[in-house]
């Protein structure tokens, strides 16, 4: 079985280790350190007066290891792209620098003193960097995975201990748990403009695979409605050829994959169409010096500043 | 912090489990327009706006009771949980009397919504006589009854004024029927006092302002002598009409007024008395019932 080499480790570490004769014999099955047999009436503490002790068992059973069922699909837990160590996999510089920051830094005035939303912020690493580096007014991060949002909130917590309350950062950061795709399209009727910039980086594939064309279209429309006039959507969509390897994540995802009609190459056209309503698209850049899988173009969609008379 | 007492709602109150505002907003357009959408996709309701309260009660009446109700502009917007608690308490009181025949009740001051009568008729098929003095409220109440096709069960009677409770009706109407109960939501506040709506809270700093916007016209909310005076009128008339109405009840908005009413009842030698509390959200109200016959 081919093992994915996600961490660029040398090959010898990626092969599964097989038991050999060199391993110790029966002794290996004992506990490594000398733990007194709690259940042996002779060695246990005399204060134990409970006479209903179970009979002595082998050391391994005593540990009550949880039976780990063999995972059918080890990716099962990440069906929303909610990888636990996402920011450990992207190629970074030594002091944690996401390459995308370089692209974003070409237009810092987009973020300075602005109110931002980061959709699918994962554990918040990139959101935090953006908020700090570009001196944003506020940044809200949303993620569908509650434990990742908790991680992000803990990160803010420790940053707060390092920064006095007088400073803007990190007190202007907030992370929320939720699904950006709404229960029903009609709720868009009561959506209001509230952000200057919305970041949607490497998220479209996951919305697409989990919530189909309908979900993605709704998300695009919601992004437009949440932006103030003149506001910008910064979009980093994944290309369709990267969807295929994920369709085994679940039966539903496989069905959704097969039903997709709005392919990523049509996103720009859709976002600029009257159905969504963005006025312009501009290519911000493509991250350099990274694995080709992550070389995704970053686009800026701008909402018209002045409303049309229509 | 004032703890919410909604778990002390009447056990049969359908609003014991809070409504799903997101699902309601998806289903009903008018309600949706007064809601807010959170970033997380959840719908929230701002109780501090009158328009919101009006749409909320309307949508709950529609969703839970299939009642289409409209409120006169500026008139009191009832909260459904409280009204339901009162009706359920009446069911309990009547149940104890083992009433087998048709249940008939009187709604004193039904307001523009006529909500008590509508709920009683729709839910329990009780016959209701709704008394109301304000012309605009009478008009809306009659429309509400008609729109919900409950004309057969509810009669809205136009009271000429607020000087008496039953007298005008019983004296002038051709009505031989007896009534099992009467209910009332009196004007809580005393228009004669210096600060009618001020409240006599002993510790204003610790007592937070109510969560919701105040609704209702001055004449719905206050009268000369406030609720004590109003309920006293009902008590006085109850002595005259004790053969016509079995159980007299009224709500009270101020806890301190409950013992005052109990004293009045005791002075008149009325023995069969019951009190109760209505809990919903952060609000508590009280109610009192008295009868010249055994409650059983």
Give a quick set of tags describing it.
heterodimer; A: 310 residues; alpha/beta; Rossmann fold; seven-stranded mixed β-sheet; 25% helix; 14% strand; globular; B: 296 residues; two-stranded antiparallel ribbon; 11 strands; 35% helix
Can you describe this structure in just a few lines?
The complex is a heterodimer of chains A (310) and B (296). By secondary structure, chain A is of the alpha/beta class.
**In whole angstroms, how far apart are the ends of chain B?**
40 Å
The main sheet of chain A comes to: 7 strands, mixed
Tell me the greatest interface.
Answer: A-B, 18 and 16 residues
**CATH evolutionary superfamily of the domain at 88-302 in chain A:** Vaccinia Virus protein VP39
The level 1 CATH classification of chain B is: Alpha Beta
The CATH topology annotation of the domain at 88-302 in chain A reads as: Rossmann fold
DSSP strand content of chain B: 15-25%
Count of alpha/pi helices of chain B: 10
Q: Name the strands of the widest sheet of chain A in spatial order.
A: 3-2-1-4-5-7-6
User: Low-confidence parts of chain B, pLDDT < 50 over ≥5 residues?
Assistant: none
Fraction in beta strands of chain A: 5-15%
Mean pLDDT score of chain B, rounded? 90
General description of the model:
The complex is a heterodimer of chains A (310) and B (296). Chain A has 310 residues and is an alpha/beta fold. Chain A has a domain at 88-302: Rossmann fold. Chain A has helices spanning 59-62, 86-89, 100-104, 125-133, 146-162, 204-226, 251-259, 267-272, and strands at residues 115-119, 138-143, 173-177, 195-201, 227-236, 280-285, 298-302. In chain A, helix 6 crosses helix 7 (251-259). Chain B has 296 residues and is an alpha/beta fold. Chain B has one domain (66-193, 201-291): Vaccinia Virus protein VP39 (Rossmann fold, 3-Layer(aba) Sandwich), CATH 3.40.50.150. In chain B, 35% of the residues lie in helices and 20% in strands. Chain B contains 10 helices and 11 strands. In chain B, the strands form 3 sheets. A 7-stranded mixed beta sheet of chain B has the order 5-4-3-6-9-11-10, sandwiched between helices. In chain B, strands 1-2 form a two-stranded antiparallel sheet. A two-stranded parallel sheet of chain B has the order 7-8. In chain B, strand 1 and strand 2 (43-45) form a beta hairpin. The longest helix of chain B has 17 residues, at 80-96. Chains A and B meet through loops of A and helix 1 and strand 1 of B.
């Amino acid at each position: 079985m081919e093992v994915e080499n996600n961490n660029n480790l040398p090959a010898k570490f990626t092969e599964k280790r097989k038991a050999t004769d060199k391993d110790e014999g029966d002794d290996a099955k004992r506990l490594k350190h000398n733990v007194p047999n709690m259940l042996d009436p002779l060695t246990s503490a005399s204060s134990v007066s409970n006479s209903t002790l179970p009979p002595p068992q082998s050391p391994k059973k005593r540990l009550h290891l949880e039976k780990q069922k063999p995972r059918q699909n080890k990716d099962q837990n990440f069906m929303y792209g909610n990888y636990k160590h996402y920011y450990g996999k992207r190629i970074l510089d030594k002091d944690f620098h996401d390459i995308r920051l370089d692209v974003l830094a070409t237009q810092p005035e987009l973020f300075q003193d602005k109110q931002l939303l980061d959709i699918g912020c994962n554990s918040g690493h990139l959101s935090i960097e953006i908020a700090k580096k570009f001196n944003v007014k506020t940044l809200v991060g949303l993620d569908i995975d509650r434990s990742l949002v908790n991680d992000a909130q803990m990160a803010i917590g420790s940053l707060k201990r390092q920064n006095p309350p007088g400073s803007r950062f990190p007190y202007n950061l907030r992370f929320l748990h939720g699904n950006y795709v709404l229960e029903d399209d009609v709720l868009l009727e009561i959506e209001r403009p509230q952000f200057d910039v919305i970041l949607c980086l490497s998220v479209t594939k996951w919305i697409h695979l989990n919530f189909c064309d309908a979900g993605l279209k709704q998300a695009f429309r919601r992004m437009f409605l949440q932006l103030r006039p003149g506001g910008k959507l910064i979009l980093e969509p994944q290309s369709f050829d990267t969807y295929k390897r994920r369709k085994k994540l679940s039966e539903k995802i496989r069905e959704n994959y097969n039903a997709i009609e709005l392919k990523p190459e049509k996103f720009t056209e859709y976002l600029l169409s009257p159905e969504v309503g963005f006025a312009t698209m501009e290519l911000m850049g493509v991250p350099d010096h990274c694995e080709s899988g992550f070389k995704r173009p970053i686009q800026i969609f701008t909402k018209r500043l002045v409303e049309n008379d229509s | 912090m004032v703890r919410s007492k909604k778990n002390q709602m009447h056990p049969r109150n359908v609003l014991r489990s809070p409504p799903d505002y997101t699902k309601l907003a998806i289903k009903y357009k008018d309600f949706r327009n007064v809601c807010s959408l959170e970033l997380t996709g959840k719908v929230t309701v701002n109780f501090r706006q009158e328009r919101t309260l009006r749409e909320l009660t309307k949508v709950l009446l529609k969703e839970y009771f299939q009642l289409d109700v409209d409120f006169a502009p500026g008139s009191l917007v009832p909260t459904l949980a409280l009204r339901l608690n009162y009706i359920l308490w009446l069911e309990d009181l009547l149940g104890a009397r083992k009433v087998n025949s048709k249940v008939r009740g009187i709604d004193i001051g039904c307001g523009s919504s006529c909500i008590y009568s509508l709920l009683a008729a729709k839910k329990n098929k009780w016959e209701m006589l709704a008394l109301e003095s304000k012309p605009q409220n009478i008009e809306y109440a009659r429309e509400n009854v008609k729109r919900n096709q409950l004309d057969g069960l509810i009669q809205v009677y136009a009271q000429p004024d607020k000087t008496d409770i039953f007298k005008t009706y019983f004296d002038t109407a051709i009505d031989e029927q007896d009534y099992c109960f009467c209910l009332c939501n009196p004007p809580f506040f005393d228009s004669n006092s210096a600060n009618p709506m001020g409240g006599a809270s002993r510790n204003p700093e610790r007592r937070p302002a109510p969560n919701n916007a105040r609704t209702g016209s001055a004449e719905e909310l206050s009268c000369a002598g406030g609720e004590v005076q109003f309920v006293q009128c009902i008590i006085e008339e109850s002595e005259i009409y004790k053969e016509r109405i079995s159980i007299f009840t009224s709500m009270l908005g101020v806890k301190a007024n409950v013992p005052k009413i109990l004293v009045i009842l005791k002075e008149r030698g009325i023995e069969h008395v019951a009190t109760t509390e209505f809990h919903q959200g952060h609000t508590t109200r009280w109610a009192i019932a008295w009868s010249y016959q055994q409650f059983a």
